[in-house]
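In this section we walk through a basic example: taking a raw amino acid sequence and producing a predicted 3D structure, encoded as discrete structure tokens. The instruction is simple. Fold the sequence below.
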Amino acid sequence: MALSKIQAESMNLADTFAFSGTATGAGTKTLLADTTISSATASVEFKHGTGDVVFSSTYSRYELTVDRVVPSTNTERLELLISTNAGNSYFGDSQYNCVVKRFFSNTSDTSDDIAYYNDFIATHRQTANSDANRGGVNGTVVISSMGQVNRTIAYGNFWGFGQSYYLHSHTLGAVESNGDDMTAVKWAFASGNIASGRFKLYGVK
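The resulting token sequence is shown next.
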């Protein structure tokens, strides 16, 4: 007999059970790509139609994560770019609106600031150290409307240790176009290679 409803103050499942079927009614998060860098690499790209990557209305939004991303050279800033042609080229200067709110401390001084950029959709802003023992760049970026013909907007959080400060920053970015279908993203440092780090892409329904 099918069980359609449970109503109780508590449930005791102290036994072994086999479950089948599909759970519905809640959003699902699917890992689409997972890339680990261990030697000098210019960039990390996730492109529609490559592997399990799908940028379309299949997912309501996409989540990108970066963990311990270290530059090959000192004082570089990690940036996220967007493409409309599956990575053949990426939007450049003056094609984004990006605002970054930054909080930082060196254990004796603490401060914050706000900056505007127009050459990427997201950035951790603080220059990163090439010493992997400092922890690299860490962060999460959520992008709405990828693979759909409307304006693409991103929100991100980044944290880590830069040259001399601990940092936490919020990023709000947008591609300045209402009619482009975004089909790829690229992580890269403003200059130089990625020495190491892990990059993931999730689709969220």
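Looking at the output, two observations stand out. The two ends are 31 Å apart (CA to CA). The CA atoms of residues 77 and 131 lie 14 Å apart. In the next section we compare this with other chains.
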